[in-house]
Amino acid sequence: MANIDEDMIAQYFYKGAKVEISSKDEGFQGSWFQGTVLGYRKSKSNSCMKVLVRYKTLMKDKEGTRRLKEELDAMQLRPALPPENCRRFESYEEVDAYYHDGWWAGIITEVLGEDKYSVFFRDSREQRCFKAARLRRHREWVYGKWVPPPLKRAKVEEVSMSTEEKPKKETIDNNFSQGEVEVNTDEDGIQDDWFAAVVDKKSGAPEVSIATEVKPNEEIIVNNFSPRAPVEVSSDEDGFGGAWFPATIVKELDKGKYLIEYRTLRNDDDTELLREEVDSLHIRPCPPDIELLDRFEVLEEVEALYNDIWWVGVVSKVRKNDEYNVYFRSNNEELGFKHSDLRVHQEWINGKWIFPPKVQFSEY
Question: What region holds the Agenet domain (predicted)?
Fold first, then answer.
């Protein structure tokens, strides 16, 4: 695993820096919580950088009077995502949704209205409904850069005003007509964010309807598999995020679990293939074979075959002779692969295979 050096710490994770924090705890994969850096040091045991942070929305006590502090590996941090203009989202677009005091990675499965969306979360296999104000475009922090880059906010031209032109009142009232605007809020966790809103009517100070989260319409997506069916299995173990193991269904068990047999992993005695009980939420069918592309592009999501396991990653460099560098988010590693060892990344959602949309460079 690549370590973050002191220069990067000094540039992005200095004392007082606003950051987002990931967690290695079970059930928190794909989530980011806001916080502030209090300090950092080099670990004596393995020379990695440790950063002390204070969470913005997570509390140490039940009364909610003391914010949680924690010393973490620098690999669990990234800078606060720059704010963007409000925008609409499309089906199968990757997003982060704000709930449970943090941002959680998901994918839009349905556009329910002008500002309402159904979002599917890969790790929990849950589907929830959100309004646009609680969504943002999903991004990864890769080697000091956002992938894809944030959308640029419109610049506001500075207007110099003479003394005679200054308004008589100290407070300047903004005049808004009915339509879309952006507003901020004092609500915990999202004070620095701007949300899509609509001006309902104009009477003195404008009345604004802020788009907040729809009450979750929670739905657990359950998969059913037949004995002897070839499948792929994911794992919650540390270091295996984004990995899919080839396996075969042996039989269905109680409470949505299956007994599976791995096709490449063997037991401790190396006498037979490893068998394990796995929750159906961690199982998907084998992706359909699709014709290989002539070439993959930088920033394209792929799955790379490494040690007989398929790993989800992002193409970070196109090399000569049909070779690529692929960056893996889960462990911050970059490895080289031949074209034949890569396949198009697909998502198994609601019983069908989905191709995540490609990055549209024209937007920024």
Answer: 11-85, 87-143, 223-291, 294-350
